[in-house]
Design goal:
about 300 residues, alpha+beta, 9-stranded mixed beta sheet
Length: about 300
């Protein structure tokens, strides 16, 4: 008898002390063998919070979830440095000898990290150097030199500050390392800094308050699957008539005559008349829809 096939998104509340891969391995036990599962953005072992997993066909939509903005609650320890930029690394106290930064100095420092900024990933990270993961080289004691990358930080709110502890709420885009922010904030303040605690509170519309814990059973986990359409909730929506939907799903490009999309040259989510997600397509500058991912 053929096993039931599952597809969709599962929002997990990752506990501290385990890797994102370990979460995937645990969740695999909730679904039939050969079910494909992937996560949409690694959380360090120290971190907790939202880890969005793609199940079955939804793995083909992982890139759209990865693009979503993320929110974090970060506890930063000032006055010390870590080789991993977090509390799991080797800690070295700062030798600055200066007075602790005043709160207004901290506020001014945080403002400098909002917007489009250049950020150097942590040495112990999954960033690649010549095809090798940086953490693989760092663990072997080899010198690691990473180039700065352009990222977007939408906002940083100071929650509490009492030196040496600084708690922040951070909203940022894809590719942002909170560990790097902690290190760079500490360096700008002249005292060093690293991530002491970290919780990802949201990924796009997916909130930690609605995430599932790893101690639930398989039936409960399967019931929490979100539909494929949840992965593309941030994409513009286009509903096609049956004839156009059929042509698109057969791999044909079609002219889009709808007037509800002002912006061209972007990906759009394609739905049929029954409101089911049937494809993701690219709408070019000439108003032509070309199928990118087809699901029926």
């Amino acid at each position: 008898m053929k096993s039931a096939e599952y597809e969709g998104l599962l929002v997990v509340d990752k506990p501290a002390g385990i890797t994102s891969r370990a979460v995937v391995n645990h969740v695999l036990r909730w679904f039939p063998r050969k079910t494909s599962i992937g996560h949409t953005g690694t959380l360090d072992p120290l971190a907790t919070g939202v880890l969005v997993l793609c199940i079955g066909k939804a793995t083909r939509l992982a890139e759209y979830v990865q693009r979503l903005p993320k929110s974090y609650r970060a506890g930063i320890r000032l006055g010390a440095r870590s080789d991993t930029d977090d509390a799991d690394g080797t800690i070295q106290a700062s030798m600055s000898g200066g007075p602790p930064p005043e709160i207004e100095e901290v506020r001014g420092c945080l403002e400098a990290f909002v917007g489009e900024i250049e950020q150097v990933p942590p040495v112990f990270s999954a960033a690649r150097i010549g095809g090798r993961r940086a953490y693989d080289l760092a663990r072997k004691g080899k010198e690691v030199s990473l180039s700065a990358r352009r990222i977007v930080v939408y906002g940083i709110d100071l929650v509490t500050y009492g030196y040496p502890h600084l708690e922040l709420q951070i909203r940022c885009g894809k590719g942002t390392y909170i560990r790097s922010l902690a290190r760079e904030i500490g360096e700008r303040l002249g005292c060093g800094g690293y991530v002491e605690t970290l919780r990802r509170t949201s990924v796009g519309p997916f909130e930690a308050t609605n995430a599932v814990a790893l101690d639930i059973d398989a039936d409960e986990a399967r019931a929490c699957l979100l539909p494929l359409r949840a992965a593309v909730a941030e994409l513009p929506k286009v509903t096609l008539a049956e004839s156009d939907a059929l042509r698109l799903c057969q791999g044909q490009a079609i002219a889009f005559t709808g007037a509800d999309l002002e912006q061209k040259d972007q990906d759009v989510a394609i739905f049929n008349a029954a409101e089911s997600l049937i494809a993701v397509a690219h709408l070019d500058s000439q108003g032509i829809l070309s199928p990118a991912k087809v699901f029926v």
